[in-house]
Protein 1
Amino acid sequence: LGLGVVCAGSLNAAETAVDAIYVDCTAAAGGDGSADGPFQTIVEGIAAAGTDDNPTLVLVAEGTYTLSAMLTVNKAITVRGAGMDKTFVDGGKKVRGISISGNAVVENLTVQNCATTSKASGIGVAISSGILRNCRVTNCSNGAHDSTGIGVYLSGTALVTGCIIENCTSSKRATGYGAYLAEKGAAIERTLVTGC
């Protein structure tokens, strides 16, 4: 499913009162995405959201969700964490973080420790059409290669708003970028970029 699970957290009562798909990494495997039987991985929540009259909101409980492959959000849904200091998507210094397209929204979480073991650029979040809102992107790099470390890569109609991008670096001779705007239609607003 693209995710390992290392977690301590759960959904609170306010979060379970919303019409949504629920994800909680402390839940037992085999859940149905309901408040009483949440999915264990974000991948399962994304797959179910917006299909067969399912809600388009995926609520991700607090905890750390460790990636084994880049997480893809490629349809018009919202993936919402419990807060940037509570919900963590972790690349384990081995994989890129999140790919956002299809007018998706990702909000209220931290993307951290994203890198690549190949010579490609290490990217925390890549957005081509969609929004990254109220998130932290931190400690993303290119690993030990001569390629670029990028916190957030924006193209198309991507928007980053109300975020913190920090400590995204490169090793050896290549450059590290907090954010890289590849096209004129992409935008960043109300975002702090530091230590990159």
Note: Confidence is low (pLDDT under 50) at residues 1-6, 12-17.
Protein 2
Amino acid sequence: TEKTAADYKEEIRERKEKAEEQKQEIRASESKVDMMEDAVAGLNSEKKELQVAKDELSDTVEQLDAQLTNVQEVLTQLEEDIDRKTKQVENIKNRLREAEANQDEQYASMKQRIKFMYEKGDTAYITMVFGAQNLTDMLNKAEYIEEVSAYDRQLLNEYTETKYRVINLKDKLEVEQASLLETQEQAEIQEYQMSR
């Protein structure tokens, strides 16, 4: 069978239509590829933004961890200070109790000595000196009276020192208790800041 010119024309027309359909399919595919490339570019841009946000968040977490570590160290130091100051306060309280007991004892002793001196008066000393049997006995009694007077002065000085020691210990106790309170307040502030 021989093909006629009309057959060739028909075949050429069919091939042209087919070629035109393939061109349209290629254009549609190219358009889809362009859209996909745009979508990939958008996703890559979003990925970069997310990476930057992730890096910033990691930096913030590291800073917060460093701050937390610092606060925990400060809190530990404050707790150690509180323990130390609590022991100092207890030590001062014990020393104060001892000093007050000593003061009370010295006061009672001096009170008794003054009462004796008041009841006997200076006549006891005069009687003792003039009741001496000889000059040596008189000098011995005078020396004894001098020793008793020196002992009385010593007792008075010890009482005065003890009284000042009690006052100083009370002052020191107040200072240490205030310092302890301040340290405890600092610890509470640090704990509050750490919990936020």
Note: The radius of gyration is 53 Å.
Protein 3
Amino acid sequence: LCPASGTSTAETTWIEGVAVTRSPRPCPSAINPGNPRIHIAGYAAAIHEALSRRPCDVVHCHGIYAMTAAAEACGGGVPKILSIHSPAVLEQAWNWTHGPALDWPKLLGLPLIRHLAQRAIAASTVCHTLSRYTRDTVRRLYLGAADKAWRVIPHWVDPSWYRTVSKTLARQRLGWPSGMRVVLTVRQLKPRYGID
């Protein structure tokens, strides 16, 4: 289930044997205090609709809104996996203190973000992170998180992606000077990542 902008109805496609349903993404104002509830309600409606067409064996969510909605829509009958890429309360605190001045009032919402994260972790059967650092940080930040089942599964790499030409030849082909430092990151370039 993927929320998608620009769609008014749910659309399902099959990718490698997995049904992927793209559902309408709610677009409330960023300063609307009901923003989390609107997103959770949108996810929950999409989950109800998807489950009315076919049952599922497991629910895998990325994010606290999706897991909160899955807990509401599925109850305890379906195992739920929560993938946590970063602690939401720390990420939002950084975003809201390094963004436009309009973001500062959002800091009042950090207790709600903490509450939703704790609810999402509590609702999950198992939590997944990409690193021990993230797991340990989340365990320290959220009440009850240390008691959960955790799995650290780093990013997977397809061995066929390994370089087949030398670094020197690759630099020549790209027109890069041999002494230039290169940093490759496969993610959004946001200031909070500290890449600069």
Note: The helical segments are 35-53, 64-74, 88-97, 110-123, 132-141, 167-174.
Protein 4
Amino acid sequence: RNCNTIHEMSLDVGQEENLKIVGKGGKRLVWKPLEFDGAVKALKMFQYRPDREDDFGPVSIELQRRDAIIHELTASSPYTVNMFGYCSTSAVYDFGDGGHMQENILRDGPIPRDDLLRIAHRVASSVADVHNFDDSGRATVVHSDIHGQQWMKVKGEYQLTDFNLAKFLKRSKKKIKKLKRKIKKKIIIYLIRLET
């Protein structure tokens, strides 16, 4: 979807139940609006601050574009949050109705071992899906902002989100072969040193 998704959302500030700030990141606010079809979605928008007018410039637009691209490329993953549209520095996502992982762990205290194992599996699977969405067997993207607030609980399961600081890794096959040779050489030198 495109900017129309954002413009079709109910942003009637006069009706408290339709619009609430439910979270805040480094530069963006997270709003809980009702989408035009009645489904609850999260709307992330840059917070306007007169001292940071450059937040709405080309760099911020590029960061949001990266976020949108990675959400699109990982849309089939059950371990990443769905994005439903973006426009400039704003985007619409699944609403994390269960909060974020860091908040939940700090609030709930000790977690049973089985639950920890299930959470660890979801965390590892989400990172793997983001790193290897192109099935090349090598990392394609680095998230660059991994911490407990990046996993939102959506419909009872943690999902990774917030890819605006991610970096795409670009390597040619020639560079990969050269890197493999270099690594093999270092391993051989290391093994020889162990034997002596």
Note: The helical segments are 3-7, 58-73, 101-108, 113-131, 173-195.
